[in-house]
Amino acid sequence: MEHSDPGANPEAPLGALRDQIDAVDQEVMSLLIRRLELVGEVGKLKGEHGLPIYAPDRERSMIAARRAEAERRGLSPDLIEDVLRRCMREAYAHEKNLGFTRQAPDLGPIVIVGGAGQMGQLFGRMLRLSGYDVRQLDRDDWSRAEELLDGAGMVLVSVPISDTVEVLHQLPPLPHDCLLVDLTSTKVAPMAAMLEIHPGPVLGLHPMFGPDVDNLAKQVVAYVPGRIPDASTWLLEQIRLWGARLHEISAEDHDHAMGLIQAQRHFATFADGLHLVREDRSIDELLSLSSPIYRLELIMIGRLFGQDPELYADIIMASPDNLALIERYHDRFAEALEILRAGDREAFIARFREIGEWFGAHADRFRAESQSLLAHADAQR
């Protein structure tokens, strides 16, 4: 029986195998290029026929079929799904640049108030890709406001939360059939102001994403119907074509939900950051000792502080209701701390189970969904 020479140099056979892997990688890249070419053809057809770039039923069925095929062929279904989802993200970004069917072909110019801001630029770009005439009205343009707004089919207000109501009241009278829309992350006060200053159609929008997204596929846009809902149908349909999911909600329900989703969550992250600063341990040391889940949590805390502090101050302090909500959060934190002070293990377990019952089946689903996020965080080490 022959044995390999323990003193033999493994570099030669390793080099040959690595060359073969490199060749396979070249084939994979060629196939990805071909896939994007086919995506481009799909995008053109969707644009011609007014179809949204995101088709959830098609995506679900395709992923399920590929997972089943991977299992039959001895591949990890999770690996195949990860690769395909990354390909689809690139495909959505590629399709977006091909343009969209214009849903209101006879609409007059669209004026974005605050169009130089990041969110204003994003919506301006999407509207131009859809064939609309888009103008900007920014801080230095108010002397030309009447000229820019003349004949406007839609006015889209995208300014800081703290300035929105004041800016709305500064607008000159708009054409009666002009659609007035805001993009603010609070809705009660802006909706009231828009309905007060404009007798025509009104719609409230809240994009549930930041301006740094490369496309709107799978993003959520909340909308609050205002006056003459039929006059805003074209805009909602346009947003659907961009790939976003729309969620209708009242202004009051929206602001309460945003208190939980945004104000309280951002404040808790702010407090986490403040605590880390006061403890003053090396971030590199914390990362080197982190499990994937703590690394991801630390990433999410740090992500907040790489952004505009004025934006987050506005979000958190936008409403007295947010303060009341955060005070209730403080009280519940104190309740949990008291369990810890008392060393009451049974009370902790009881509360833990109570919370788990509230989450119900979502707890197991969230645990499964988080595995890919944790794996991705671990891969970035």
DSSP strand (E) fraction?
A: 5-15%
Structural class category: alpha/beta
Total DSSP E strands: 7
Q: pLDDT under 50 segments (min length 5)?
A: none
Radius of gyration: 26 Å
User: What's the tally of helices?
Assistant: 15
- How do the strands of the widest beta sheet line up side by side? 2-1-3-4-5-6-7
Overall shape: it is globular
State the distance separating the first and last CA atoms: 43 Å
Q: Helicity, in percent?
A: 55-70%
How much is the average pLDDT? 90
What's the helix-strand series?
A: HHHEHEHEHEHEEHEHHHHHHH
* Sheet with most strands: 7 strands, mixed
Family: Belongs to the prephenate/arogenate dehydrogenase family.
Pfam families: CM_2, PDH_C, PDH_N
InterPro entries: 6-PGluconate_DH-like_C_sf, Chor_mut/prephenate_DH_T, Chorismate_II_sf, CM_dom_sf, CM_II_prokaryot, CM_T, NAD(P)-bd_dom_sf, PDH_C
Keywords: Isomerase, Oxidoreductase
Q: Key features?
A:
about 375 residues; alpha/beta; about 60% helix; prephenate dehydrogenase (NAD+) activity; Prephen_DH; isomerase; Bifunctional chorismate mutase/prephenate dehydrogenase
Describe this structure in words.
It contains 15 helices and seven strands. The protein has 381 residues and is α/β, with parallel strands linked by helices. A seven-stranded mixed beta sheet has the order 2-1-3-4-5-6-7, with helices on both faces. Helix 7 links the parallel strand 4 and strand 5. The protein is globular, with a radius of gyration of 26 Å. The chain starts with 10 loop residues before the first helix and ends with a helix. The relative contact order is 0.07. The mean pLDDT is 90.
